[in-house]
Amino acid sequence: MAYINLYRDKLKHNFEFLQTLFQQHGLEWGIVSKMLCGNPLYLKELISLGINEIHDSRISNLKAIKKLNPNIQTVYIKPAAKRSIPQIIQYADVSLNTEYFTMKMLSDEAVKQNKEHKVIIMVETGDLREGVMGDHLVDFYAKVFELPNLQIIGLGTNLNCLHGVMPSQDKLIQLSLYKQIIELKFNKKIPWISGGTSVTIPLLMRHQIPQGINHFRIGETLYFGADLFEEKTIEGMHADVFELHAEIIEITEKPTVPIGELAANPQGELMEIDPNEFGKMSYRAILDIGLLDIDPKYLISDYPFDIVGASSDMLVLDLGKNETGYKVGGTIPFHMKYMGALSLMNSNYIEKRLV
């Protein structure tokens, strides 16, 4: 059975790196836990780091966090579906919102449960995912700030999550100006300006975060040490907090090109044959993971082989002459990109281990 290792010393190192970075700049931050898919072993490890705020996009995960530590401030990080409103009020201390219809329901439910619920209003700054349009923001705030049992604690934005629009000083200054306009017009304080996610960290390290931005929501950089501007690992951080180990279930020397009439495979792919490969042989290994678990494009390895392709439950490698000496029953380690790790964490067929 394939398994994932989470290396707790590397996770702790990355956490302490970020904690120091944010403290040096006087910023608050919370950890985004959605990649862990509610795994209790890994959530316990996250909580043990000492963070007091965890963000997630699945209510079941927030429920698991509250069960482990009810004192953690939980943040629901996508606009709420109507059917989810009661559970959001029950398990999320804060939620990110963009619709009056939704916030009115949150207010009504908070009154019903006798709770105060905090809200961050998300503002559209160009990536065209969730967010109130800037020229509608003042009118929107006027409609929602007096809703009972809701407390508007922040304005926020998301960038690079859909169309790849990158954060900039100008976009973050714009967010800060919205805060100033609302505070002056309504004589209300907005404590948080949540300037973004991991993609914004390189701006912080270059001292390009404008005054007023005081809150971050961090996932990918914690788990992968990622500089998402330059697509590299931030110096001093670990990129290999997670590691996949997949077992070899067959090794056989085979032709390098298929034999017979070709049609599209179950994924709709039609292979093109290189005539220069006819007559050549190489060792092929089959591993016990497949497309049901992860798309091969998200796998990273420094070992001397090529990924040929995958079916639903098996991954095929070309080992060449197998000079490394791989054997059936052995395992091959991989690092992963964020979306690959997310897929594996969501797979019930991959064992999760803590090292």
From TrEMBL:
Checking Gene3D superfamilies in the record gives:
Alanine racemase (3.20.20.10)
Key word Signal present = no
Annotated Alanine racemase N-terminal domain ranges read 9-225
Query: Could you tell me the keywords of this UniProt record?
Result: Isomerase, Pyridoxal phosphate
Give cofactor(s), names only: pyridoxal 5'-phosphate
Among InterPro entries, the record links this protein to: Ala_racemase, Ala_racemase_N, PLP-binding_barrel
Keyword Ubl conjugation in annotation: no
Question: What is this protein's record name?
Answer: Alanine/ornithine racemase family PLP-dependent enzyme
